[in-house]
Specification:
The complex is a heterodimer of chains A (298) and B (283). Chain A has 298 residues and is α/β, with parallel strands linked by helices. In chain A, 31% of the residues lie in helices and 27% in strands. In chain A, helix 3 crosses helix 4. The two termini of chain B are 38 Å apart. Chain B is 67% helix and 0% strand. Classes of the chains: A alpha/beta (298), B mainly alpha (283).
């Protein structure tokens, strides 16, 4: 164990499917205890990257270390692989456990695989499925099934939890509740690697965000700083007798002060904005950068 | 979120103790058996097929196996019991595994510390339980309506036991092995029924094995169903019938050898080729 502060480390990861390059030289560092979000459009290489880190897929090139071990060795089985598996929690994009077992039975069964398992009742309470504990899996709604997926992912008390687009198909209220759950897990010290399409989700949950497109990193940073958001020009808009006016400025406070002086008090319909995470994200994925590290910040 | 307490164990040395494969195998077995019996229509049809075959054949055919004193009904009842074992193990398990691979259940299991062996144990045990029930039902019908006699010597019960267990294990493992050939749950029933249907016509289930052309006999003798049928005949038919078999004996040694070889071969194939994921995934 060279670096005990790093939960996941990826260097120069490459993966091709036939002629299609899915991941093209990716570097990632996820620190212990942080919530790290991987953002990117469909086909950007998010799921491929995550599945390589989970030990589900082989890679063509690069180094991957997850909790001190190479996930490619998980396939071989044996005690070491099982111990590693017991420290990693996985919520797949397409978990569709179905059938005639009850929610409690399936959670208990998965719990029985782990050495440091959580109590079934508490896990069900955490994901909001206590009332459904006796229901058959086939009777669950899509959102409930997804929460069951999460329950199965955390029942082994993982040190590192992978969440691949966990809230796709949730209604807004269910998403909020899910976010609370993730915050709670993170608070308990679980490291979380999340992929998502939703920028508000990344903004609400993630300590750091990486945007990938075309299999490469476009930017990394905190949600507030991503792609230079924090230092980007602000847009000041207001209305005067000629209608709507707007300027881009690096010194919005001065602009506002000047306007206030001109209007002798309140400025009609004043707004000051910086690029939203969505604006930044769309700029980043519209013009993918050839080299990986542009815009990366500490 | 509510506070979550820790269950599970750490040994004195501070080493994390993983649950044993046997315990997980038992846990899987219970789960498999529950899932099977809660699917009412699947239970009904699994058990009904051989019973209906038995009843139809019993109604159509009378008479004796040529050159012997043994009623044909008793002969094919042995075959139908064999078919019951094959459908509850080979076909059922194979189709079930492909469905679990399709819907992501296997992929999820692969992401847990559960060993593959525990999964196989669950399949084999549930196959065994269902086969025992199926066989019991067919035996009751055979004895009550088709003139089959219950084995009267301990030696015959012993033969019944080992032939049954060896076959259940062989056909369960074969189901797992062949499940790898089906690319999706749509193709699974065809892939798994094809070998079973073909073999059932050439292995002495519906037709008397000794009356089949020599070439067909030789082909059937490579596969386990012929030996299972022959083993069951040695349990349920009069001892003298052995002379009417092509080998003029029950060939218990050969039965054990061939079934055992299929167990080993399919175990090797299972361990080497079993995939948790679909073929286009995990590349």
């Amino acid at each position: 164990m060279v670096d005990t502060d790093t939960a996941l480390r990826v260097r120069g990861l490459r993966k091709k499917y036939g002629d299609l390059i899915a991941v093209d030289g990716l570097d990632l560092d996820v620190r212990r205890g942080e919530v790290f979000a991987l953002l990117g459009p469909n086909g950007a290489g998010k799921t491929t990257t995550v599945e390589i880190c989970e030990g589900y897929r082989s890679r063509d090139e690069g180094e991957v270390t997850v909790l001190g071990a190479d996930p490619a060795r998980a396939e071989r089985g044996g005690r070491q692989a099982r111990l590693w598996r017991s420290r990693v929690g996985i919520v797949l994009q397409s978990g569709t456990e179905s059938g005639e077992l009850t929610v409690r039975e399936i959670v208990q069964h998965y719990a029985s695989c782990y050495p440091r398992r959580r109590d079934t009742g508490e896990v069900l309470a955490a994901v909001g499925l206590s009332e459904k504990a006796g229901a058959r899996l086939r009777q669950l709604s899509g959102g409930q099934r997804r929460r069951l997926d999460v329950a199965l992912g955390i029942v082994g008390r993982p040190e590192l939890l992978f969440l691949d687009e966990p809230t796709t198909g949730f209604d807004p209220e269910a998403r909020r509740r899910f976010w609370d759950l993730i915050c709670g897990l993170s608070h308990d010290g679980t490291t979380i690697l999340l992929t998502t399409h939703y920028l508000d989700e990344a903004e609400a949950l993630a300590d750091r965000v990486t945007v990938i497109a075309d299999g490469r990193i476009q930017a990394t940073g905190t949600p507030a700083e991503l792609g230079g958001r924090d230092t980007a020009m602000a847009t000041v808009t207001w209305h005067d007798e000629e209608g709507r006016r707007s300027v881009q400025t690096g010194t919005p406070a001065r602009t506002v002060a000047e306007l206030a002086a001109r209007f002798g008090g309140e400025i009609p319909r004043l707004t000051v904005t910086r690029p939203s995470l969505e604006d930044t994200y769309l700029t980043l994925i519209r013009a993918p950068q050839g080299s990986a590290q542009d815009g990366a910040r500490r | 979120m509510t506070a979550i307490t820790q269950v599970g164990h750490r040994s004195l040395s501070g080493q994390v103790s993983l649950p044993s494969t046997v315990r997980l195998g038992i846990s899987r077995s219970v789960l498999e058996i529950k899932s099977f019996f809660r699917r009412k229509e699947r239970v009904a049809f699994t058990f009904a097929l051989p019973v209906v075959l038995q009843v139809i054949f019993g109604a159509i055919f009378s008479g004796k196996v040529p050159g012997t004193n043994v009623p044909y009904r008793e002969y094919f009842t042995c075959g139908i019991i064999a078919v019951g074992i094959v459908t509850t193990t080979f076909t059922n398990l194979g189709i079930g595994i492909v469905a679990e691979r399709d819907d992501g259940t296997l992929k999820r299991l692969a992401g847990t510390p559960m060993p593959k062996t525990a999964y196989f144990i669950g399949k084999a045990v549930s196959g065994l339980v269902v086969s025992v029930l199926e066989t019991a039902i067919l035996l009751v019908i055979g004895v009550a309506f088709l003139g089959l006699s219950v084995p009267h010597s301990p030696a015959r019960w012993f033969t019944f036991a080992w032939v049954f267990v060896l076959s259940v294990v062989a056909f369960s493992l074969l189901g797992v092995a062949v499940s790898g050939l089906a690319s999706s749950s749509q193709s699974a029933p065809v892939v798994l029924q094809f070998p079973y249907l073909v073999l059932s016509f050439i292995s002495g289930v519906y037709f008397v094995y000794g009356s089949l052309p020599r070439v067909i006999q030789d082909v059937a003798a490579v596969f386990p169903l012929k030996w299972l049928c022959q083993g069951l005949r040695s349990v349920f038919l009069p001892g003298g019938f052995a002379r009417a078999e092509p080998a003029h004996s029950w060939q218990h040694g050969e039965i054990a050898l061939v079934l055992g070889a299929w167990v080993v071969a399919s175990l090797v194939v299972c361990v080497r080729t079993f995939r948790w994921q679909g073929r286009d995934e995990a590349r």
